[in-house]
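Same chain as my last thread, 483 residues:
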Amino acid sequence: MTAANSTRILDALTSVLGSGPASLSVPGTEEYDESNGSYFSAFENEIKPAFIAKPATVQQVQGLVKVLRAHVLEGSVQIAIRGTGHTPFAGSANIQDGVTIDLRRLKGITLNEDKSTVEIAVGETWTTVYAELEEHGLTTAGGRVGRVGVGGFILGGGLSMVSSRRGFACDSVTEFKVVLASGELVRANAGEKSDLWTALKGGLNNFGIVTSITMTTFAAGDMWGGLTYYPPETFEDLLSNACNFAQKEPDEDVHIMCSAGYGFGHQAVTCCMWHTQGKVNPPSLQWFTGVQPQIEQMNTMRTSTHSDFCDELSKFTVDGARNHWTSLTVRADIDLIKIFRSMWQETLQSIKDAEGFVFSLGFHPLTRALLENSRKAGGNAMDISPSDGPLFVVLINPSWALPEDDGRIFAAVESLATRLRELASKRGLLHRYIFTNYAHRTDHVMAGYGKESLDRLRDVSAKYDPEGMFQKGVPGGFKLVRE
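reply #2:
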């Protein structure tokens, strides 16, 4: 950015936010370093925006859009929109030499009069949401990891511990408040701007800046679940049961995640599982609790609260590591999954000498019940037919310590993902969908929603952002038009 242009942008930003460091941070200051160093991944921390704008009110968000719009459309600046900043790939919510709009100061959790819905400002995390709602005996279909932010999680679709009964997390949204490219604040719900409401459920940052999300609530009773650990040789039994669970289990009050993992020189297999109505070791989870042997001293199965289980998962990652995610979606097939694990093992052997290396291969079922309940909730951008299920979202997730290992780990993991997709495709088991919250920047996520949905999303973009501000000027995330 030229000095003259930098001055123009700074003047625009200060006209809305003032010049205080709490609202506007510039390079070379403690506030800038603290804010820019607080992302989930080191790759986002290493990007250096020219300015970090930190609005505290919706009106300030509107003002920022209005003063930056002309600069964005003329190509003199690009912007990033940041919630908590949990997506790990570089540039997802930060922008080199541009303006990062950090929404973490937008706070507020407000129940409606009859407590059937809650409006959540996008600067909140699920930990703060659950803590507030549980004071009223309530909860909602939010993130499985408590410290994840509200905005990006919902705009990516999201999976919750209650997804089998309630669909994707975004399916519980009754209304979005969103600042359009014009600077206008609008409401999008089933009765008002319903096309935008549907598009935002999985449509990411393509249509405006969402400032709050209203979701349905429900009673927060005790849950039963936690993590169970097994030695590596149990993998085939556990995942065979996971396939049977996905295909046959009728209980909609259960949610699971299975994975093979490596860390600290050891391998193990894990299953995270919960019964959301609090039944202790119900038949629907004996697919997993019955697998033996187990590493008993590491198991955490118990009766507890929704918030406690989500906070438990928060402890398995730390901010600032070299975190990487990539994902694909396949039909539930144990023979395919066995080969996937073998290929993952080959990749592990080639890169496990990297300092601080941790590597997991996860399987997250999308049951037919989940997809049917998602469809009943009014539809979303992902547009997955219930007849496509059951499916597994496959998450490939390495993390490591040193930048000098970046090149070889990226190459190995990208090669693995490509080979997994090719194998699944050859066997007719690859699904078009890529789970948005786990996708890598090279994925054409929106194409994975299917042509009909992508065409609808482009129509919504043209209607509410006719000049394409959020397509041209906000390169982070996944765009409707891919270069």
